[in-house]
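Quick one, tokens below:
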């Protein structure tokens, strides 16, 4: 896309030794059954039923397997709907990215963003004509007014060529600094400042001895980096080390950056030199244009495979309006005040949340805190270049943060968790656009990590109208709640039209002429919940906003009979629970080694372990640590 760049701040240098066997340890506490009111059918009674686990830590491999058994996470809380009991059965839905076929509407969303970035989109007309249930008339008016005023302001205060160049050069220095951090030349744990390249005034320019070049731009970023690292690592305590010999001195940092940026200089007719810790940019005086009808077009013509080929060119201003710059930045999950401010505005304006209810604590718990143990790039095909873990994907237009996608990147998939966006940009359908970008990301990164093939869209609730748009990402699949097999949505849809809870794999087996277990009884498949749910105004591809509160555990003593995994209850014999991994007082042991400490009357723990083993599966019960404190 013209004017779009993709950045990653996710990977670091600690990538050595990231084999599947040393990605950490999953430790969970069992919260048992959770009953609550339902945010989908708006039931005020405790009709939403799920099983909950609190994850102290979880490996990406274990979480991937939990997703494939119908689990999701909200912060550090893991939950799995009890499909036969809950009012709104929730089916995990996914899409194989390389098979994705965009609909006409999805293509229109991409083209609309393209025109907006190119400066050819009539913003006012787009806002007025867009029939988006996600934005009220007043919000549309505010969006139109805000964006139109900004567009007029930008036209009245159009930047000069020099301003565009300083913006561009600052970005290139930042890219190089980020590359150094990822390669380990800077400490990866230190948050480095952003570079600022400034134009040198005519009075301060110094001609070189040859007289052939002028000093045009300069940056003191090396001083800022040195000070930041020195403060973080307390290097200043070593008074015996001189500034000249210090490997983190401004002078040495500037020289290394200048050398690394030399290719950039050659490409754009600039000369870059380090001088006493400063990074100076020189150019021939005859190359400096004062033509006000020209501006810098950054990456305007790159194809998808050329996005990293940043070039500096002079081109006419687009006749329809100002070209905009769209950046997509991928960063590890962490608290960012700018993101929180955007989230707060989104929740209040789009979801009509009371300001007092949108707190930093709830935001951190919901969208920042993560139990996922990060996996750094391994340099081979087992891990993508950004690594695995929890990420925030920022969408930035002309330096303004307009949307943030909260995602988990796992061995088999990108799992979309939540999206929040600036209400002024609702006319761009940010929910749909971000989904298309995330699908594209999976397709691109499957080349680096062949196991990473799928895009998980969260839960699909057929009885909830606001969820049905997820099936528009074709061809999608739903997870069978009984046998955990993936069933094409086209097969599942007519079944779900009749019943909210269906054992999808039964019908697939019957279609294939194979024998199967008996279908679930009609009384289990009765309609549960209200299908007259008003369509939400959300344009968001994820559905975890109702999981922000702390889980309320309730007794599961009434959980009897057949389980949700298609296994029948059996007596505790012959080590049936014996291989479950238990965590107790910092030790790890199998339940069979712990069992002798419990008298026969104390069967409550074993009852808990039976339910736990059913909901997570035998393999995970023997691998994850079931914490008893």
């Amino acid at each position: 896309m013209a004017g779009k760049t993709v950045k990653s701040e996710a990977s670091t240098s600690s990538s050595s030794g990231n084999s599947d066997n040393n990605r950490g340890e999953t430790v969970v506490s069992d919260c048992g059954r959770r009953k609550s009111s339902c945010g989908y059918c708006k039931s005020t009674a405790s009709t939403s039923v799920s099983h909950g686990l609190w994850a102290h830590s979880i490996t990406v491999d274990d979480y991937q397997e939990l997703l494939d058994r119908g689990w999701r996470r909200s912060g550090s809380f893991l939950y799995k709907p009890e499909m036969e009991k809950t009012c709104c059965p929730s089916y995990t839905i996914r899409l194989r990215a390389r098979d994705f076929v965009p609909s006409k509407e999805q293509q229109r969303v991409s083209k609309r963003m393209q025109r907006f970035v190119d400066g050819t989109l009539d913003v006012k007309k787009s806002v007025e004509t867009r029939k988006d249930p996600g934005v009220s008339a007043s919000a549309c008016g505010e969006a139109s007014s805000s964006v139109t005023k900004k567009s007029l302001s930008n036209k009245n205060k159009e930047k000069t060529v020099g301003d565009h160049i300083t913006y561009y050069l600052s970005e290139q220095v930042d890219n190089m600094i980020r590359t150094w951090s990822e390669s380990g030349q800077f400490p990866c744990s230190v948050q480095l400042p952003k570079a600022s390249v400034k134009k040198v005034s005519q009075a301060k320019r110094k001609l070189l001895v040859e007289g052939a070049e002028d000093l045009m731009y300069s940056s003191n970023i090396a001083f800022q980096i040195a000070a930041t690292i020195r403060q973080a690592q307390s290097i200043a305590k070593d008074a015996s080390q001189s500034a000249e010999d210090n490997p983190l001195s401004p002078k040495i940092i500037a020289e290394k950056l200048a050398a690394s940026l030399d290719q950039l200089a050659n490409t754009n007719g600039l000369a870059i030199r380090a001088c006493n810790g400063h990074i100076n940019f020189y150019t021939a005086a005859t190359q400096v244009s004062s033509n006000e009808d020209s501006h810098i077009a950054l990456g305007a013509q790159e194809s998808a495979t050329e996005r990293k080929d940043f070039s500096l060119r002079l081109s006419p201003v687009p006749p329809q309006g100002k070209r905009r710059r769209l950046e997509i930045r991928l960063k590890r999950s962490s608290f960012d005040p700018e993101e929180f401010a955007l989230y707060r505005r989104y929740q209040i304006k789009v979801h009509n949340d009371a300001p007092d209810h949108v707190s930093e604590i709830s935001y951190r718990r919901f969208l920042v805190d993560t139990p996922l143990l990060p996996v750094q790039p391994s340099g081979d095909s087992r891990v993508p270049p950004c690594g695995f873990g929890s990420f925030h994907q920022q969408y930035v237009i002309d330096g303004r943060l307009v949307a943030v996608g909260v995602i988990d990147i796992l061995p088999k998939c990108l799992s979309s968790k939540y999206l929040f966006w600036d209400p002024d940009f609702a006319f761009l359908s940010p929910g749909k656009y971000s989904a298309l970008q995330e699908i594209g990301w999976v397709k691109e990164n499957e080349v680096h990590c062949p196991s990473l093939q799928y895009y998980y869209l969260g839960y699909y609730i057929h009885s909830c109208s606001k969820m049905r748009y997820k099936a528009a990402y074709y061809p999608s699949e739903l997870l069978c709640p009984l046998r955990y097999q993936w069933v094409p949505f086209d097969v599942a849809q007519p079944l779900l039209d009749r019943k909210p809870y269906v054992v999808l794999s039964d019908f697939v087996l019957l279609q294939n002429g194979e024998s199967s277990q008996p279908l679930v009884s009609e009384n289990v498949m009765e309609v549960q919940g209200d299908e007259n749910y008003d369509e939400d105004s959300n344009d968001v591809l994820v559905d975890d906003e109702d999981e922000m509160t702390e889980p309320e555990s309730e007794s599961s003593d009434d959980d009897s009979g057949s389980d949700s995994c298609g296994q029948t209850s059996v007596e505790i014999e012959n080590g049936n629970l014996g291989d479950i991994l238990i965590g107790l007082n910092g030790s790890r042991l199998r339940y069979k080694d712990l069992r002798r400490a419990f008298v026969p009357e104390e069967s409550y723990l074993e009852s808990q372990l039976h339910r736990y083993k059913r909901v997570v599966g035998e393999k995970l019960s023997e691998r994850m640590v079931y914490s008893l404190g």
